[in-house]
Write the structure tokens for this entry.
Amino acid sequence: MIYCGIDWAERTHDVALVDDTGRLLAKRHITDDAAGYKLLLELLAEHGDAEDDPIPVAIETSRGLLVAMLRSGKRKVYAINPLAAARYRDRHSVSRKKSDPGDALVLANILRTDMHAHRPLPDDSDLVRAIAVLARAQQDALWNRQQLANQLRSLLREYYPATLDAFATWTNGLCRPEARELLKTAPTPTRAARLTRPQLQAALKRAGRKRGIDTEVDRLREVFRAEPVHQPPLVEDALGKQMLALLVQLDAACTAADQLAEAVEEAFPQHPDAEILLSFPGLGIQLAARILAEIGDDRSRFADARGLKAYAGSSPITRASGKRSSITRRWVKNDRLNHAGYLWAFAAPNGSPGAKAHYRRRRDEHGDWNAAARRNLFNRMLGQLYHCLQKHESFDERTAFPIEIAAAA
């Protein structure tokens, strides 16, 4: 048996091959381009790599063209956590020396000695990989949009607080097209106080507003003209220019989030598991796509539901030493899946009487705080999702929460 370790870098990679006894068979320094990939494949072929029996590879990343090239065919690629690789390095040397060829050798020896303790990258379909790219990008776009909105809100509080009162009744506030269009039309409170009814109506129509325009115009004029305190004129104009520059970034973030959301809505329903995921209460297309993106469609990825729960960080972890024992939440987890799970547990009680009763029981009888109760609900529903995906069944309320439904009735 031959094992391969690759120390990944941005421009070059170090490759090491070892046999069952740990003897170094070959080492090579390759570039991150087509010529380097070809050299790597030739090196593997020289040492017995075949299509039916490929050489397993350990690397410290799960992304990139190099990983995509290695994953073609039946080859098993192991993405080793850099922290774990550093601990393995201490097994071979206590002098704390480090080099890229040495790290490649350590990665190869990880597979030689502890392959059973690590899992290869899941064999997901190309469709679910594409959904993962879109869902994660859309999630990042939402986080970026919210960060920019918070920066804009903080700036407006310094010189233009009337806008915060004017947009407080709108969902998503500053991210709404109407809010952004009004800020472009009147970047300072002095200019906002001079807006006429036709100007406000035109701004709302440009933003796509079709109903209740006259009522909103009256309310906005009243709010904008009631501003009692102003910054000095020069300072106010400077802050207005800063706000317009920040507004350009927010516009781009909002556009990107909307476009990626449309791409997710187009790609996600094409997956066979979409119907099962959407049958669960609290899951819409965007949230279900995020969950599918993180768990994939490789049924052999998790041996049981406990593995999936540990991966999501919903199941507790026990730390015991001597007479001391504690049960706490998991800190090492898939953060994206855990975040999606919290939103799922927040929305599920609104569409499921059993989920609502389970949440109330955790709060009232067990004394859990809100976050702990929702994490417990997410843990339970994640187990139900694992069962439904394995059995190709849709969610059934009576099967999922038989006791809670009876108690609620």
The longest helix spans residues 233-267.
